[in-house]
Amino acid sequence: MNWLHPFARLGLAIVLATVLTGCGRGTYSGPTANTGEAGVGPASERLRVGDLLKITFSGPTQPPPDHNERIPDDGFISLPLIGKVQTMGQTRVELQEAIRKRYEEGYYRTITVTIAPAERFFYVYGEVNKPDRHPYLGVLTVTDAIAAAGDFTEFANKKKVQVTRTDKTVIYVDCVKALRNPALNPEVFPGDQIFVKRSWF
Q1: Is the dihedral of CA 79, 84, 88, 93 positive or negative?
Q2: β-pairing verdict for 83-86 and 140-141
Q3: From CA 145, how far away is CA 124, in angstroms rounded?
Q4: What is the fold, at CATH topology level, of the domain defined by 25-33+119-196?
Q5: What is the pLDDT of residues 66-111, one digit of tens each?
C-alpha cells in the first residue's frame, strides 16, 4: 500500500496548516502581535495602508520636490527619479533611511529625507459616551481607548467588545476581565475600530 503514502502525507500537511494558521476571528486570550514585521519594534510604529506620508528633501542645490501621498493597498509609493518604494512594515525613520540610500546610490552625493509624523486615529462606536474617531497619540489598550471615548454607557455589553483590525481580523475582549488582568487587555493600533454592543440583560 505504498501508493497511499503521498496522499496520507498531503492530508497531514493540510491538517497541520489549518491548526497552525487558525482563523482571523476569536476571543482575545493573551498578547497578540505587539511587534512589527520580522518582530522588530512595536507594531503601532509601523507604517500602514492609508497613512499620509509628507516627505521633504533638503541638502542638494536642487532637491526633489516635496511629496505627499497616502500609502495605497499595495504598500508602494512612487517618488521622483527613484520610482516605487516599499513602505509597509517599516517605521517612519527606517523609510527615511531607505529613501535616502536610493537617492544617494544614483542621483545625489548627500541628501536629507524627512517624513513628518502621520496623523493617526482609532475609532470607537456603539455604547460609549463619545462615539467618534480619536487621535492615536501613543501606545494604548482597549480599555484605554474606551476611556478616551467617554467610557461605557449604562447599557454597554462590557464582556464582548469587538475590535476590528485594519487587516479585517476581528477579536473580542472581555473588558471586565481585562481591567483585572492586563494580559487580557490587547493593544489598540492606528486604524482599529472598536464596537461596543448593547447589553440586553
Answers
A1: negative
A2: unpaired
A3: 7
A4: Outer membrane lipoprotein wza fold like (3.10.560)
A5: 999 988 889 999 999 999 999 988 989 999 999 999 999 989 999 9
The amino acid occupying position 153 is: T
Number of C-alpha atoms within 13 angstroms, CB side, residue 58?
A: 3
Per-residue DSSP letter, 108: -
CA torsion angle 118 88 98 37 (round to 10): 110
Query: Rounded to two decimals, what is the model's pTM?
Result: 0.56
CATH topology (fold) of 48-115: wza like fold (3.30.1950)
Q: In one letter, which amino acid is 93?
A: V
Helix (H) or strand (E) holding 79: strand 76-79
Q: How far apart are the first and last CA of the chain?
A: 59
- DSSP-derived secondary structure letter, 43: G
